[in-house]
Every structure is written in structure tokens, then in C-alpha cells.
Amino acid sequence: MQVRMLNKHFRRPDPRKQLGPESGVTILEMVVAMLILTIGLLGLAASIGYAVTVSNKGRNITNTKLMVVSMLEQMETLRNTQSGDVSELTFGQIANTGSVDDTGATRTFPGFPTTFQPVSSNPGPDGLFGTTDDLISAGPDNVYGTADDVVDNSLKVGQYTRQILITSLNPNLKRVQVTLRYPDAGGQLRDMVGVSYLNNDSRSNFR
User: Fold this and answer.
1) Tell me: the pLDDT tens digits for 6-27?
2) Domain extents for the chain?
3) Beta strand pairing status for 136-137 and 117-120?
4) CA angle, 179 then 182 then 183, to 5°
5) Whole-number Å distance between alpha carbons of 56 and 185
6) What is the largest CA-CA distance in the chain?
7) What would the pLDDT profile of 37-62 be if each residue is shown by its tens digit?
8) What is the pLDDT of residues 164-182, one digit of tens each?
9) How many Cα atoms are found within 13 Å in the side-chain-facing hemisphere of 133?
10) How far apart are CA 137 and CA 156, in angstroms?
11) Mean pLDDT of the chain
12) What DSSP line would sit under the chain, residue for residue?
């Protein structure tokens, strides 16, 4: 009798009712979760790439501005100063090719070319940056004017080129414009322009 009652009340559990709603995930749920995670990671990667590009662009522009200012300051420094035993340019000699006045100068100067010249880490035999001889190396003997002088393209500063335009506004005032052509973060060439006014009484205004 007792055995019958036990058999009567014993039921095998239904396997469909064993799993609750939180007991696992379906393949569809896993696919959706992976899709969401992938989208998030792609967005993060894009943000990092954008931040790196903006950072490089800002650093490139800052370096270019410094180079332009340095070139303008060179013009101020060149006027009636001495560099070791080499006499620098007079006010009349700070001019483009064809407009140089060598009156009262200790040496002749052909002038700054109006075409774009490569930016060099070396001023060349004349000791002046921005002229046509900037890429000339003194060679193994380290003496300019000898037979081993060569054009050394390794002196170029990246893809940078510069143009120096000098306009005489009156006998005592000149406008100096430096255009620096540089590669941006995307590899395209862009121009940055700096202007200085050079006068005959050792004053200069930048803008």
C-alpha cells in the first residue's frame, strides 16, 4: 500500500521546465552581443586614429610656424652683422636676385632667388640659408671651394621648400615675405606665409 502511494505521487520532471529564463543564452543573443562589442571597438579605434592625426597635424603646424619665424629672424640678423670672420649682408644686399645693391659691402651677393628652394640643414658656402648653394657640402676635406665639394641631397629637411620675396617699400624699409611649403598629415603640400618689415634702424615688426 505504501509502495503504491509512492509510485502514484512520483513523476518524472519535464525537461522543458528544467531551464529557467536566466539559465543560458541563445546563439542569436551571442551574435547580437558580439555585434555590439565589435561596433564599440571599431568606434574606439576610429577615435584613437583621429586623435593621432589631429596631434600630428598640430605638431606639424607648430614646427612649420617656428621655421617661418626663424627664417624671418635670419633676415634681421643678416643686416650689418658679423659671423666670425665673414661679413654679413648690408641693408642694400638683402634683396632678391637682380635687385641687390652691393654698395659699401665687403663682398658681392647674388641675392635670394624668388623660386622655391629646398630647406636645408646647411647654409652652404655663402653661410646664408635660403640661397641656391644650401645643398652644397664641403666634402671630405671640410673646406668649401675645393674639388671635392658636392651637392648633398641628404641635407634636405623632409619635403619642405621655401620662397623668399623681398619688396623695397622705400629706401629705408623693406617687406620680407617667407612662404614655407610643407606636407600636412595627409601628405598634401600646403603653404604657410610669414611677413616681416625690415628697416634701416635695426627694428622689425612681425605679424
Assistant:
1) 455 555 555 555 555 555 568 8
2) 47-206
3) unpaired
4) 155
5) 6
6) 137
7) 888 888 877 777 666 666 666 667 77
8) 999 999 988 999 999 999 8
9) 15
10) 12
11) 79
12) -HHHHHHHH--PPPGGGTS-TTS---HHHHHHHHHHHHHHHHHHHHHHHHHHHHHHHHHHHHHHHHHHHHHHHHHHHHTT-EETTEE---GGGSSBTT----TT-SS----B-SS-EEEESS-TTTT-TTSTTTTEE-TTTT-TTSTT-EE-GGGEEEEEEEEEEEEEEETTEEEEEEEEEEE-TTS-EEEEEEEEEEETTS-EEE-
Query: CA–CA separation, 112 vs 38, rounded Å?
Result: 57
Cell numbers at 56, concatenated: 600630428
Cell digits for 118?
Answer: 629646398
Look at residue 115 in the predicted model and tell me its pLDDT: 95
